[in-house]
Design brief:
473 residues, alpha/beta, Rossmann fold, seven-stranded mixed β-sheet, five-stranded mixed β-sheet, 16 helices, binds nicotinamide-adenine-dinucleotide
Length: 473
């Protein structure tokens, strides 16, 4: 897929790290420790398929850093999974958690299968067996390592994981916290499913609200009216498209693995999703033009490009043809360092993956806290707040002699539900993370791009944590 084959994904992460480490003051040995993957568990296990065949499944779980516990990171189902990829993704999780102040170490898992080639029953057996292998080696648990959805997995797989874990650990009161991204009925939190896409939107919106940054890019301030291209209509791509559209932007093109479509007046992601469900493809969507190749979408004229599918899709070969002004890395590792170099040269702003797609892990953190506290967000205060608001409103109405409309009354009285609190926590997290990174970037004119500034921020936080542990006298 990549034109920059000389470096692996993990090596690319290391190269970005090294580029940023030069702007920090930390000891070389400490930097080496932060970079290293602490534990790699590579497993093989047999699963009997529907036709009676036995297939040997290859799978991984990597714990990149335990400077905070538990480790945290998704599980990917893809036939591209390999040890290097899982290590790279685990490392990105360490830096991502540090940037958004989520107190976890980085982890990641992967099963080398194309889920489209398996029945639901086969997938269930594979997922449950994988979980049992993790339990056997103490590689999963609310205080050890907490997986989540990633490419090719979702709520369904997470509920198989929590069910398998709980049955192997009877009586463990916090067992629901062994995995996040669960359905609500299994201990999930409202707002988790769309969290990564919403975080992408909040992060880009914050950047677009910075007048100096927009002036540099030749763009107007704000999201309203900006044109957006999205690659991938999975969880992250779908929700990114949805929140950009709802925020006033126009999603002019969407790419999937079977092709890409363009529609100048905007694509409604839900209509496209239903069209794909009915026809098996995003192509031939009403009012839209099919593009010759799915990668053509990446090279369209637009303000914001959101790669939300896989890694290495923009590399040294196609980067010179990319015309977007802002690239928001919703996927993990969609740009190679060669592509980064092209964009620095061209003055295109790359908003880096390891903080931009941190919405998922941020809300996973909220889900984990909910599981440990065994109480839904908002349960204790919602009614109290509504009663207080009603009293304040009644006072105001009696003092002014005026009445608000019924709709306004409901709006003013509304006490926060779980989803309101989750979205508010996510918005706060993404706004603070954006501003922290921008401050670092502005403070040192030698820092070439936002990715390096984000790494500097991550390295400083992880190094401080190690240093404060006192294990490096
Ligand atoms: P997903 O499986 O729900 O969706 C991925 C989509 O990309 C699929 O619809 C797939 O068909 C499509 N795709 C595959 N190859 C493509 C190609 N060549 N061109 C266009 N589309 C293609 O996965 P997801 O959870 O949305 O994850 C997408 C990316 O976001 C991954 O890099 C993942 O690591 C990252 N990410 C996900 C989360 C999360 O919460 N799910 C959080 C952080 C980062």
């Amino acid at each position: 897929m990549s034109a920059d084959q000389s470096y692996s994904f993990f090596q690319n992460v290391e190269r970005s790290f090294d580029k940023a480490a030069k702007f920090t003051k930390w000891d070389k040995g400490l930097l080496e420790q932060i970079k290293a993957c602490n534990s790699v568990y590579r497993m093989r296990f047999p699963v009997k398929m529907d036709d009676g065949r036995i297939e040997v499944i290859e799978a991984y779980r990597v714990q990149h850093s335990q400077h905070k516990s538990p480790c945290k990171g998704g599980i990917r189902f893809s036939d591209e999974v390999n040890q290097d990829e899982v290590m790279a993704l685990a490392a990105l999780m360490t830096y991502k958690c540090a940037i958004v102040n989520v107190p976890f170490g980085g982890g990641k898992g992967g099963i080398k299968i194309n889920p489209r080639n398996y029945s639901a029953y086969e997938l269930e057996k594979i997922t449950r067996r994988y979980t049992a292998e993790l339990v056997k080696k103490n590689f999963i648990g609310p205080g050890i390592d907490v997986p989540a959805p990633d490419y090719g997995t979702g709520e369904r797989e997470m509920s198989w994981i929590v069910d398998t874990y709980s049955s192997l650990k009877p009586g463990e009161i916090d067992s629901a916290g062994c995995v996040t991204g669960k359905p609500i009925s299994q201990g999930g939190v409202r707002g988790r499913k769309g969290a990564t896409g919403l975080g992408v939107f909040y992060g880009i919106r914050e950047v677009c609200n910075m007048p100096d940054m927009m002036k540099k890019l030749g763009l107007t301030t704000g999201i309203e009216g900006k044109t957006v291209v999205v690659q991938g209509l999975g969880n992250v791509g779908y929700h990114s498209a949805k929140f950009f559209r709802e925020g006033g932007a126009t999603v002019v093109a969407i790419a999937e693995y079977e092709g890409a479509i363009y529609k100048a007046d905007g694509i409604n992601e839900e209509e496209l999703f239903q069209h794909r469900k009915a026809t098996g493809s995003i192509l031939n969507f009403h009012g839209a033009t099919n593009l010759a190749k799915n990668t053509d979408a990446l090279e369209l004229e637009c303000d914001i490009l959101i790669p939300a599918a896989l890694e290495n899709v923009i590399n040294g070969e196609n980067a010179p043809r990319v015309k977007a002004k802002i690239i928001g890395e919703a996927a993990n590792g969609p740009l190679t360092p060669e592509a980064d170099a092209v964009f620095i040269e061209k003055g295109i702003l790359v908003v880096p993956d390891m903080y931009l797609n941190a919405g998922g892990v941020t809300v996973s953190y909220f889900e984990w806290l909910k599981n440990l506290s065994h109480v839904r967000y908002g349960r204790m205060e919602k009614r109290f707040d509504e009663n207080q608001n009603a009293k304040i409103l009644a006072q105001l109405e009696s003092l002014t002699g005026k009445k608000v409309t019924e709709k306004e009354r409901l709006n003013i009285m509304h006490g926060a539900d779980e989803v309101d609190l989750v979205h508010s926590g996510l918005e706060e997290t993404m706004i603070s993370a954006t501003n922290e990174i921008m401050e670092i970037w502005k403070s040192n004119p030698e820092i070439p791009d936002m990715r390096t500034a984000a790494y500097v921020n991550a390295i400083n936080k992880v190094a401080t944590s190690y240093a404060e542990l006192g294990i490096f006298p």
